[in-house]
Design a protein that fits this description.
By secondary structure, this protein is mainly beta. It has 4 domains: 4-99, no CATH class; 101-195, Phage tail protein beta-alpha-beta fold (3-Layer(bab) Sandwich), CATH 3.55.50; 211-226 and 294-353; 235-290, no CATH class. Helix content is 11%, strand content 40%. The chain has helices spanning 51-54, 115-126, 161-169, 276-290, and strands at 4-9, 15-18, 23-24, 28-31, 37-42, 60-65, 72-82, 89-94, 108-114, 138-142, 148-153, 176-184, 187-195, 211-214, 218-226, 235-238, 253-254, 264-267, 294-302, 318-325, 328-343, 347-353. A 7-stranded antiparallel β-sheet has the order 2-1-6-7-8-5-3. Strands 4, 14, 15, 19, 20, 21 and 22 form a 7-stranded mixed β-sheet that branches. It has a 3-stranded mixed β-sheet with strand order 10-13-12, covered by helices on one side. The longest helix is centred in the last third of the chain and has 15 residues, at 276-290.
């Protein structure tokens, strides 16, 4: 199984060059609702003649194509290019979510807008081609338009689209989003997905479509449980900016059934929030995510034998696992949610979150 790499114009999606000799440092991948960076190298002695145009920072996406040579799996915009008198061209890439942190939101007032349509309108107004010469991204709402939200954004607050999306997603029931790729009429362009939930949940009473087994396609597995200051808390408070002792804040949200001593967490989800109800929603979301600490399962599987990314499972899907090893003689099995993935030519590594499913 082989992967291939191409350079495409960030303005149009047109292919500029094949990059068959590009090499990548370690695994590459993506995670829901955040951007990832990656370093790659292009040997000059085997680079195409137009390699300068094909690696121009801020103007090009480097895209990985699946084994069929046509289906885009991953892409990153060239942010830096280092050339030396000898050796390969070294590039730093960032997934297209990073572009959202380079575009700013102007004056917008939503009194009762459906949350997923708010996100769609922000992307189309400030990110998409035509929005001050943005990128050719298509926005797809997954499922319903979502619940009504009242939100106001001001140009003078200097908030990027990326930070605003974090604010919107940070409340209970807030929108989820991620970015992928598509190839339509030989134009390779990003797709922005937004919905109350990205990905498929396992059908009631049934197992998810994709399952990973050890022994089987899984070659390595690691279960991580953490109650660090960023992952675990059973008493939380969300605050906004204020003057002196006067500041908007939520009520304290506590997990009263926890047998642990009290672990507190305070943070500012956004400096522009003035409504206590919005801060309460952020605090509820944080408590739900942190009350049991962080639980994650990292699997590495043979890409040829494992359930196929983009066919059997997608980012956001529930996936199953059944693992037996020296640390788990009775087995570890259950269902988790694939909130991201890493891969190389030989291996696939779904990043499985067990917190939202309830653990193992």
């Amino acid at each position: 199984m082989t992967l291939s790499w191409v350079a495409v114009n960030a303005n149009t999606g047109q292919m500029i060059a094949d990059l068959p000799n590009l090499t990548i440092s370690g695994m590459f991948g993506c995670t829901m609702m955040r951007y990832e960076t990656q370093t790659v190298a292009l040997p000059l002695d085997r680079a195409p003649e137009n390699w300068r145009n094909a690696t121009r920072p801020g103007a090009v996406f480097i895209v990985c194509l699946d084994d069929d040579g046509a289906t885009p799996l991953w892409g990153g915009m060239v942010l830096t290019r280092d050339t030396q008198h000898t050796g390969p061209v070294e590039l730093t890439l960032a997934t297209p979510e990073a572009y959202l942190d380079r575009r700013y939101v102007g004056d917008r007032n939503y009194t009762a807008g459906a949350q997923n349509l708010i996100v769609k309108e922000l992307i189309e107004a400030y990110v998409k081609t035509g929005a001050l010469n943005g990128i050719p991204v298509r926005v797809q709402v997954v499922g319903s338009n979502g619940v009504a939200r009242a939100r106001q954004f001001k140009d003078v607050e200097d908030k990027t689209v990326y930070s605003v999306l974090g604010d919107l997603a940070g409340v209970i029931g807030g929108p989820e989003w991620t970015m992928g790729w598509e190839n339509v009429n030989n134009l390779i362009t990003p797709v922005f997905y937004v919905g109350d939930r990205i990905g498929r949940s396992a059908p009631a009473g049934l197992q998810p479509a994709a399952r990973f087994y050890l022994p089987g396609s899984v070659t390595a597995a690691k279960l991580s449980e953490s109650y660090t200051s960023q992952l675990g808390a059973n008493r939380v408070l969300a605050v906004s900016s204020g003057v002196d002792d006067a500041r908007p804040q939520s009520s304290f949200k506590s997990n009263t059934t926890d047998l642990r001593p009290t672990f507190e967490y305070r943070w500012t989800p956004s400096t522009s929030i003035t409504e206590t109800s919005t801060l309460d929603a952020h605090a509820d979301r944080a408590l739900s995510a942190m009350k049991d600490g962080g639980i994650g399962l990292e699997l590495t599987a043979n890409r040829q034998e494992a359930p196929r990314l983009g066919r059997d499972w997608f980012i956001g899907d529930d996936i199953g696992f059944d693992l037996v090893g020296p640390a788990w003689p009775d087995g570890v099995y259950g269902v988790g949610r694939a909130v991201g993935w890493r891969m190389d030519a030989d291996n696939i590594r779904p990043l499985i979150d067990l917190t939202s499913i309830g653990g193992i």
